[in-house]
Amino acid sequence: MATTVPDLEVTLDELPESERISEYHLMWRAFRRDPLALISLVILIVFILGAIFAPFLTAFPEQGLGVPNILQKFNPPNLEHLLGTDYLGRDVLARILFGGRSSLAIGFLVVFLAVLIGVPLGAVSGYYGGWLDNLLMRITDIFLAFPPLLLAIALAAALGSSFTNTMIAISFTWWPWYARLVRAQTLSLRERSYIEAARSIGVPNGKIITTHVLPNVMTPVMVQATMDLGSAILIGAAISFIGLGVQPPTADWGTMISIGRIYFLERPWYAGSAGLAIFLVVLAFNLLGDAVRDAADPRTRRAVDIGR
To answer: Distance between CA 230 and CA 271 in Å, rounded?
Structure first.
């Protein structure tokens, strides 16, 4: 389930350009003062680069892509295979690196699609209000009435087992949170003096939304998105774990845990490596989200500055 973020005080549209730059500089300065944030950022960069350059970081790229090597199955960790081999003799490290491609891609694409759908709907709903607001919010409530994981599993089962269908299924459960968040921000913003001034001189509503409303709701959206990335990866892994997500021979962390659990007591390195990868990535995204939230909140930044 997505985590809601508090309203933020800063409205960038009310600031001169120089002060906007200073505001972002203050956010970055507050962010880099947090050691946990920097550590989490480094962990995520390592995993992302590992997924991107997977063919060049392992001596067994073909095994990472699914080619079996039966003669080497279930070798324990050694100098040749640092994380051992799996039930088909494939290098586990190579599978982890290639599995990061699907697992991380699901997280980023799910959040991107959720933002792409939820932010415009929330802005339109909050700005216009009335019957349109009621209609859009009732549709949103229908999606929010179901637990996200159960709804995602049901949609994945209906659509069929694949990477694309997993991404679509999770996105359908995620966009309502962004619609709600942006609507709440827009309801506050539409009463601001600069919005009323824009209306009074005849600026079209569509332009007001795109140039005045959306830029000022993106900071809380960015915070929400950062915190949701880990949850999206976790749900993607859960769907793959029950066999409705990415299908073998494509590497995926959830699928690796699902298969590795059968052999866990005798050969724990297979499922354990994938589980550790998910744990580190999800933890890093959660810590990063907390740091971005604190950096974006002027009250927190002031408290940090006072304490220095």
So the answer is: 19
Phi and psi of 4, rounded to 5°? -75, 150
Ranges in the chain, pLDDT < 50: 1-2, 5-21, 303-304, 306-307
| Encoded tokens for 207 | 């332009």
Task: Say if residue 9 is exposed, middle or buried (CB neighbours under 10 Å; 0-12, 13-18, 19+).
Answer: exposed
Say if residue 268 is preceded by a cis peptide, omega within 30 of 0: no
> Strand, coil or helix: what is 85?
strand
Contact call for residues 205 and 127 (beta carbons, < 8 A): yes
Q: Is the dihedral of CA 227, 101, 273, 113 positive or negative?
A: positive
* Residues 126, 114 contacting (CB under 8 angstroms): no
Residue 236 tokens, joined: 């993607």
How many CA atoms does the CB half-sphere of 261 hold within 13 Å? 8
Dihedral sign, Cα of residue 136, residue 142, residue 148, residue 151: negative
The total number of residues shown for the chain amounts to 308
> pTM (2 decimals)?
0.84
Q: Render pLDDT for 64-107 as a digit per residue (tens, 0 to 9).
A: 999 999 999 999 999 999 999 999 999 999 999 999 999 999 99
Cα 30 to Cα 82, 125, 270, 299: the distances in Å are 38, 33, 39, 11
CA torsion angle for 86, 90, 93, 94 (degrees, to 10)?
Answer: -150
Residues with Cβ < 8 Å from 257, sequence gap 6 or more? 237, 241, 271, 274, 275, 278
